[in-house]
Amino acid sequence: MTTTTLRAFFPRMPRGPRQQRRYTERPRQKGLVQRAIVESFRKLDPRLAVANPVMFVVWCGTALCLLLTLEPRLLDAQAGGRERGFNALISLTLLATLLFANFAEALAEGRGKAQADALRRTQARTEARRQLADGSIERVDSSALRKGDLVLVQAGDVIPADGEVIAGVASVDESAITGESAPVLKEAGSDVAGSVTGGTRILSDQLTLRISADPGKGFIDRMIALVEGAERSKTPNEIALTVLLAVLTQVFLIAVATLPPVAGFIGQAPSVVTLVALLVALIPTTIGGLLSAIGIAGMDRVAQFNVIATSGRAVEACGDVNTLVLDKTGTITLGNRLAEEFLTVDGHSSAELAEAALGASCFDQTPEGRSIVRLAEKLGAVLPFDQTQASGLEFSARTRMSGSDTPEGLEYRKGAVDAIKGFVRSRGGTVPERLDACFEQVSRLGGTPLAVCRGGEVFGVIYLKDIIKPGIRERFDQLRRMGIRTVMLTGDNPITASVIAREAGVDDFIAEATPEDKIAVIQQEQKLGKLVAMTGDGSNDAPALAQANVGVAMNSGTQAAKEAANMVDLDSDPTKLIDIVTIGKQLLITRGALTTFSIANDIAKYFAILPALFAGAGLEALNVMKLASPQSAILSAMVFNALIIPALVPLALKGVKFRPLSAEQLLRRNLLLYGAGGVVAPFIGIKLIDLAIGALRLV
Amino acid sequence: MARALHIRFWLPLLLVAGTLLLAPLFRSSQPPLQSHMLALLLCATVALSGYLFAVICQPEKF
Description:
The complex is a heterodimer.
Chain A: H1 3-9, H2 32-42, H3 46-49, H4 53-70, H5 81-120, E1 127-131, E2 137-141, E3 150-154, E4 163-167, E5 169-173, H6 175-178, E6 184-187, E7 195-196, E8 201-202, E9 206-211, H7 219-228, H8 236-257, H9 259-265, H10 272-282, H11 285-304, E10 307-309, H12 312-319, E11 323-327, E12 338-344, H13 350-361, H14 367-378, E13 391-393, E14 401-405, E15 411-415, H15 417-426, H16 434-444, E16 448-454, E17 457-465, H17 472-481, E18 485-489, H18 494-504, E19 508-510, H19 515-527, E20 532-536, H20 542-547, E21 550-554, H21 559-564, E22 567-569, H22 576-613, H23 630-654, H24 663-696
Parallel strand pairs in A: 11-18, 11-20, 18-19, 20-21, 21-22
Antiparallel strand pairs in A: 1-2, 1-3, 3-9, 4-7, 4-9, 5-6, 5-8, 10-22, 12-17, 13-14, 14-15, 15-16, 16-17
Chain B: H1 2-5, H2 7-26, H3 32-57
Helix pairs in contact in B: 2-3
């Protein structure tokens, strides 16, 4: 059964505009800053500091400067009390640099932990009714439940653990997970409505569940572990950047370490504290201090969008996605198709067709079915039989039709034109020639044609209008400008699919698609070296979700889909894939922008520290900022180096504003903004700090 | 044996050995305490450089 078909017949989460929907309450931010401050001191532990190479070098420099503050003559017998004061100022500045970097990371981690706490509150232990092999019920604590146990839950109960519905139908309040107050129908045997999450509450009726996860391994447990960062490992991009930063640090460490003999040769032997200051100024401390915060904040942004990513790697992969594979229904078009018009065949009147359509739809509770009933009643149709005496026939993917059977033996049916043709022939009827013309007419309008018959007699076609989501064309235009190709998958016939594809502005489409087609499309794109993102909710989507580089499962989907995907959308909104890609791109752009800024920053620091180091060797001309004294210049550069980290924390956590531009345009823009800005800003900042130091007579 | 291979065992040992070996290089310009401390600083810088090489070679472990 395809996702498209399922979604049409199992209407679930409301799909209104995003601003009209509720999201999970944002975790309370109270106390976050205080906790981050405490945590930033705890992170001074060298066993933790060693994880960040750039900041560990700063840590070593700080320790050395503190030692030289306590005993200035430790390395130079000539040093005296005057050096002690300067050493103390540099030590404090370096300590502040470390604390600011730790604070940025702790703040980003704290936001994740606050979110984990909010999730943990949904995990209250509860009593469960476990069904034993002999059918009897025993009451046990939810923590005693094991995978495979059968549990009975009734109205008012909190569902004790993740499970699959094996019997019963009930409405479930999933607001604890999704923030969506509307209850969700859960029933056995259904692909997308057959799984429940521990911590949600059953509102009506009762369900028998088969527990699908041992304690501590449920969906919420995994979500908590992820948002807390317990399973956070470095992403490929972070690893590459770590190597770059370590190489830069290594190069500058060697350069600074070999400076004293050269400086001594020209009679300008610098103090060790000055050399430490030079090293810290040269190494990319800004990005080194903010790198992990940017990564954590990226995952946090996805989480705040009510999407749980299984790893930072998945969020990062979103930023590199080249192809989006999208379901038509619910993503490109509104989930609910509405009956627009009746088209008659073979001399049947509109009234007759409306009456037959009403007869075939009176048991159909889907939005499509209800819209057919409304249109028929608007045309004056009256149900031609007693509904209480008749029986309804539900839609299935196999028959591709639904309808009603009356006690008189009349069979009212509506469904896919091919399916109705087969049904009519099986009842000895003939298929009117005009049926194909009606089918084509509706398809060319981008609608879905549903043929209507009674036994072997065809009455006409219902035109179900697909409504393209407002603004979706603009979103696809944006994606195209970003170099992302969109492929629409639909169970519709090729004519309808081509019309919708043209109207929505997707780059390609696959009509009459099966789940196998999804995998084929993904594999084909991946063979071309592209990264593919897709959404899915059914068990049949699981292989494709696993195959895709970014697979986003709907929370309303099956356990298999959620386990195969690397992200789960708690709102079950397939459109969100586009937003997730945007967040991934924003993460990469933020990291790139701050790296550019950090490296560009060095230039101004050279002009501050090098003239100070070699003031007596004719390098005064390099003092373009006209800094007051060598010591003031070094201290100003260090203070700027420390202050720039907290100044950039909001940008690191919030992310650089995303613009849908091509890679070249983005590179040009960021080089101008963060490269040129990174060169100019420190000149101004260092000069201002130097003036302040002079005014305060600190050195 | 595992402890013998541990960096917490080898690092101080190497730092002390390096300091004792390199201290004579600085003795001409500095008194004994300073020359030993400068030698220790040089050894620590080499160790820091070694750590950075380790990060470059195995970044995923840091």
